[in-house]
Amino acid sequence: MARDPFADEDAPDLQEVLDALDDPACRKIVSALEEPMTADEISEASGVPLSTTYRKLDMLTEASLLEEGLEIRSDGQHASKYSLAFEEVVIGLSADREFTVEVSRQPRSADERLANIWSEVRKET
Hints:
CATH superfamily: Winged helix-like DNA-binding domain superfamily/Winged helix DNA-binding domain
Number of helices: 5
Largest sheet: 2 strands, antiparallel
CATH class: Mainly Alpha
Structural class: alpha+beta
Number of domains: 1
Number of strands: 4
Radius of gyration: 15 Å
CATH topology: Arc Repressor Mutant, subunit A
Helix content: 40-55%
Order of helices and strands: HHHHEEEEH
Oligomer: single chain
């Protein structure tokens, strides 16, 4: 399931981020993602079984740590491609003594944001 492209990207859920980063398979996937890759490519590069890779990709995407895009292929067999959606994750303590999480992201151009929105629209149709 892809994240809502219109959602507030600055407010990931603390527990989802912690759970994803605590998972060894998720960390292998993050380490293997040097460029956008399909689930098959990620599974091969990380050594995580494909069935597990799909579950971990969902976990990382829901935690706002990965972005899911769509690769349009001429044969009609489109594929999701995943890329890192963060540069740094900071866990802090607010003035109210509440834990906070901040995910630093690379700035995206207007073209990249539009491509992401179109990718999400295509998945819904």
